[in-house]
Structures are given as C-alpha cells and as structure tokens.
C-alpha cells in the first residue's frame, strides 16, 4: 500500500493500529504530508470551528467575570455601609479622657452630676451617652473615688484592668 492510499485510509479512520503508528511516524517526520490531502477550504473551516469554540469559552468567561465583579461590588458596598453606620452609633457616645498630673486630687463633675475624684497620676476615660442612660468609666492608671448619682435604671460601670463593677448609686474607691 502506498503512502497516499494509507493516508486516505487514516483520514477516513479505517486503518489498523500498526498502520496508524506508521502514519504518525510519517507525520512526525514530515508534517507537510497532510497539506496535499486537506484542501485550503477544509483548513479554513477547521480554523473557524476552533475559533468559535474558543469564543464560546470566552463568553462564558465574560459572564463569570461579570458575576464576580457584581459580587465584589455588593460585598464592598455592604462593608462600606457597615463601617459608616458604626461611627454614627458611637458618635452619640461621648468619650472624655481625664488625667491628673498634679500632686493634689482633682475633682470632676460628670454630666449626670456624679463626682469623680482623681488622685495624683490617675488616668481615666469617661463615657456617657447624651441621654444619660449609660455611664462608663475606664481606669487606666492611678486611683479614683466616685460619688455616683443614684439611679438604678442608668448603670454606672467602672472598669479597672480585668475587673468591672456596676454601681447603682453609692461611693466607691477604685485603683490599679
């Protein structure tokens, strides 16, 4: 059997395994062998078919990219709206920091009329909501005395280190 008839048999997918191995060897040695058997129209239709299959994958990739982009934008807008909501909630909570660098006790009257006496070297953060329904003092260093305005419905919380105390209306001393 000559080369031309064996190549035709190979292209028609009618050859044996041994004949296919021989044709593959010929094609590896001389890839231009198929140029005589396959017309230019066949090559153009094959190339167009390959391009169409690639374009189909490209459109799928574009659709997936659009979904990912919208998902990313959705998550980003939710994160930004969450982060902008938090400052509005904390903006209504007034934080004041007091420090007594002098050698004498320093007296502070809070918005709820509670009296805080800072001993020398005391550092605190006072947080009171404007409607006075929540009062909080965080002690960073030193000693502080409190005369808390009595109102059990509005807790007065004192933090010092890992200890947290809730005062309903009395006099307490706290230090680190």
From TrEMBL:
MF term (GO), any: sigma factor antagonist activity
Domain (FecR protein) ranges: 106-171
Protein origin, superkingdom: Bacteria
Gene3D superfamilies listed in its UniProt record: 2.60.120.1440
InterPro entries in alphabetical order: FecR (IPR006860), Ferrdict_sens_TM (IPR012373)
A Pfam cross-reference name: FecR
Name of this protein: FecR protein domain-containing protein
Origin species: Sphingobacterium multivorum
Upper taxonomic lineage: Bacteria, Pseudomonadati, Bacteroidota, Sphingobacteriia, Sphingobacteriales
């Amino acid at each position: 059997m000559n080369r031309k008839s064996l190549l035709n048999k190979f292209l028609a997918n009618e050859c044996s395994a041994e004949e296919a191995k021989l044709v593959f060897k010929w094609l590896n040695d001389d890839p231009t062998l198929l140029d005589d058997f396959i017309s230019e129209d066949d090559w153009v239709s094959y190339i167009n078919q390959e391009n169409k299959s690639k374009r189909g994958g490209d459109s799928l990739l574009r659709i997936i990219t659009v979904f990912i982009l919208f998902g990313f934008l959705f998550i980003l807008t939710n994160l930004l709206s969450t982060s902008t909501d938090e400052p509005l909630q904390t903006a209504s909570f007034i934080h004041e920091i007091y420090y007594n660098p002098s050698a004498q006790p320093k007296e502070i009257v809070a918005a709820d009329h509670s009296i805080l006496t800072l001993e020398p070297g005391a550092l605190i953060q006072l947080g009171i909501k404007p409607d006075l329904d929540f009062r909080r003092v965080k002690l960073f260093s030193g000693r502080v005395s409190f005369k808390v305005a009595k109102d059990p419905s509005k807790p007065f919380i004192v933090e010092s280190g890992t200890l947290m105390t809730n005062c309903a209306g009395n006099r307490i001393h706290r230090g680190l």
